[in-house]
Amino acid sequence: MKFRFCGERDCPDWLLAEIVLLTKITSVKMKLLVSNVIKDLLGSPLDYAKVNKLTADAKLDANDQKICIAIISFFITNAAKNGIASLRCVGSKFFLKNDLYVCILFCLLNGYPDIELSNLP
Predict the structure, then answer these.
(1) pLDDT 10s digits, 76-109
(2) Which of 37-46, 90-99, 112-121 has the lowest mean pLDDT?
(3) CB 3.0–4.6 Å: which of 49, 57, 111, 114 could bond 4 by disulfide?
(4) CA-CA-CA-CA torsion sign (22, 23, 26, 28)
(5) Are strands 115-116 and 9-10 parallel, antiparallel or unpaired?
(6) What is the CB-side half-sphere exposure of residue 54 using CA atoms within 13 A?
């Protein structure tokens, strides 16, 4: 299956296999984690103590934390590389069961355009 955020290429198998880890993190903590990963991508060092705190409730071990960071980094960098500037969450059932940021990542994975990133809380 081809994905827009991957430049119309296949998504890596490791990402598809591990994306379920993101659903274990609450929406508030996902927002903070995504924010920290973005700062890391922009040059600030990633604070692993903060990552431990943010993922403590989800009971993720160090390896799972690194996988979550890698998934988020992969989505953001590839979306930017391939010009994905807007998103749309389709299916209210999916959106109601999952937090906003997991929904955003899902939409990136499936290449849905429509919700402007600047309009997100």
Answers:
(1) 888 777 776 554 433 433 444 445 555 566 555 5
(2) 90-99
(3) 111
(4) positive
(5) unpaired
(6) 25
Judge contact between 120 and 108, C-beta under 8 A.
Answer: no
Task: Answer with the residue of higher pLDDT: 28 or 56.
Answer: 56
Which residues are CB-contacts of 12 (< 8 A; sequence separation ≥ 6)? 74
**36-55 CB burial, b ≥16 within 10 A, e <16:** bbeebeeeeeeeeeebeebb
Torsion sign over Cα 112, 73, 15, 60: negative
The position carrying tokens 């989505």 is 75
**Residue 72 and residue 67: Cα distance in Å, rounded?**
9
Structure-block tokens of residue 110: 């499936």
